[in-house]
Amino acid sequence: MTTFDSRSLEQASELSELTIAKLHSAADGVVSLELRAPDGADLPEWEPGAHIDVLLPNGIVRQYSLSGDPAERDCWRIGVLREPASRGGSSFIHDELRQGDKITVSAPRNNFRLIDAERYLFIAGGIGITPMLPMVRAASAQGKPWTLLYGGRSRNSMAFLDEIAGFTGGEAHIVPQDEFGLLDLQKFLGEHRADTLVYCCGPAPLIDAVEAKCQTWRSGALHLERFAPSDKASKKEKGSFEVELAKSGQRLVVPPYRSILDIVEEHGCKVTNSCRAGICGTCLVKVISGVPDHLDDVLSYEDQEKGEVMLVCVSRAKSDLLVLDL
Amino acid sequence: MVDVRRVRGGDGLTEIDEELDQILDSVVENTRLATESFFASYDKNPDKKRLAAWLAPRAWREIDYVFLLNEQIRRYGMDFDRKHITLLAKQSFQEAEHYEIVGRAIENLGGTVPTEAPAEAKPWSDFLWDCLERHPLAAIAAWNCSETSASGSFEPTFKAGERHDIDEIVRVYKQIETDEKFHVGLGRQILGAYTRTDNDRDEILRAMRGMRDLAWKTFTPESVAEARGV
């Protein structure tokens, strides 16, 4: 699955070369790749929601969710949909790569963590099922009630159906569009459930529809991963920018009328603060990269000039992206 | 890296900045010594009721600030920017929260939460309200000095927390420590922004000097003993 967090080769960290131990068709237009260390050693640990960068020999970098079992330490699995408008990423994987080939990948990063909850609602569209599989497996293992709502164009295009059938402790609703139409979001999201976290991954129309349905849900209940930048992010509002939380890898859009502090808090990141007006300095945060636009009244001009720290209650960004030590 | 006394917003205090800092440094140090002295006595006699009595004037300060800040806004607020009215109201809300959490800590120690000024806090309270009567900025200068003084009590209290089972008090003081930075910065910004004349500066200095001599006194073991009549 390609996320919008597209990084350059130079930015990918802890690269390793893995062998494609198994490559097979998982559904129409979807291949599943099992990756192992050439010597069979354990791979770095990961948690549900994690993804890796795949650095293709043609120089293209793509991100794919890990869809296997985190307990299986010597193997990572990814699922790759052939994108109709592929610019050499998914088409290269489908057309050029073979079992036994080696590919370079980054260590796992996680922008889509599974947060502890009493129950879960997982909503997947198409290849968006890939990050959901380890999440459903984890919920099932923890004995947490779960519901999976999985839509696709047709049954043949929907990957990993056999695997889903083996999950216990919850209910899976498989909804091929040519048989049942679109996912019935109203049925599952129409009523706010305080004990439930919603995880959704899929194409933009699905994500937007889920977001709209969750307007009445409590803040923080909905967790999304997109295939591509949202229209909101790509057609950037004037004055908006993105912040990346370095500790979790989460990337968030800060609209012009909201503060960084509001947005990061909304996504479960706690920052000490008091005045929220640029006076007390308690929300001071280290800036790892990007250029802050200082709007506070208390940092010295020298510190503002250096740009190594900022007060996230009022200050904003001169660059499109700020990476913060949060 | 962040010094709330250097907050920007106006240069009305420039001429007296140095003296104000000396006053504030002095009251912080006196409060630190008074707090250390109290906890040294508490080490010898860790009676929770004494700790509750030590916290009582702190609780009163919090709720007295609520009354005072709201009166400050009612009486003089229209001479301030709207932003400062909002921030004073926010400070007032936080002081009310402090009254609530300090009050809960006092009750958990078996003490009684004051609902009127305790005798030992009366000179402090009277001076504060007298400042409000005298000049639109004097009470702000007085509470700014008093709020700054609190910073002298934090470290000795946190250190005492390592020796005694007073986690709740440490937690309460951590919250007050965070909010106190806001209150000190806000007070300084308002004073800097609205001070115009030598008379304004004289009143501010008078208020700060007066509070310097009072703010730390209720933290001493002697004050606590007197309040408990022992």
Give an overview in words.
The complex is a heterodimer of chains A (326) and B (230). Chain A is of the alpha/beta class and 326 residues long. Chain A has three domains: 9-108, Translation factors (Elongation Factor Tu (Ef-tu), domain 3, Beta Barrel); 119-234, Nucleotide-binding domain of ferredoxin-NADP reductase (FNR) module (Rossmann fold); 241-324, Beta-grasp domain (Ubiquitin-like (UB roll), Roll). Helix content of chain A is 19%, strand content 31%. Chain A is built from nine helices and 19 strands. Chain A has helices at 90-95, 129-142, 161-165, 177-180, 185-189, 204-213, 231-234, 260-266, 301-306, and strands at residues 16-27, 30-36, 50-55, 61-65, 76-81, 102-105, 109-110, 119-125, 146-152, 170-176, 196-202, 222-226, 241-245, 251-254, 284-289, 292-293, 309-311, 316-317, 321-324. Chain B has 230 residues and is mostly helical. Chain B has a single domain (14-228), classed as Up-down Bundle (Heme Oxygenase, Chain A), CATH 1.20.910.10. In chain B, 76% of the residues lie in helices and 0% in strands. In chain B, helix 2 (48-76) runs parallel beside helix 4 and helix 4 (122-134) runs antiparallel to helix 5 (138-163). The longest helix of chain B has 29 residues, at 48-76. Chain A binds chain B through residues 272-275, 277, 279-282, 284, 297-300, 303, 309, and chain B through 1-4, 6-9, 83, 87, 90, 94, 178-179, 181-182, 185-186, 189.
Per-chain topology:
The complex is a heterodimer of chains A (326) and B (230).
Chain A (H helix, E strand, L loop, with lengths): L15 E12 L2 E7 L13 E6 L5 E5 L10 E6 L8 H6 L6 E4 L3 E2 L8 E7 L3 H14 L3 E7 L8 H5 L4 E7 H4 L4 H5 L6 E7 L1 H10 L8 E5 L4 H4 L6 E5 L5 E4 L5 H7 L17 E6 L2 E2 L7 H6 L2 E3 L4 E2 L3 E4 L2
Parallel strand pairs in A: 8-9, 8-11, 9-10, 11-12, 13-19
Antiparallel strand pairs in A: 1-2, 1-6, 2-5, 3-4, 3-6, 3-7, 13-14, 15-17, 15-19, 16-18
Chain B lengths: L16 H28 L3 H29 L5 H27 L13 H13 L3 H26 L3 H28 L3 H15 L8 H8 L2
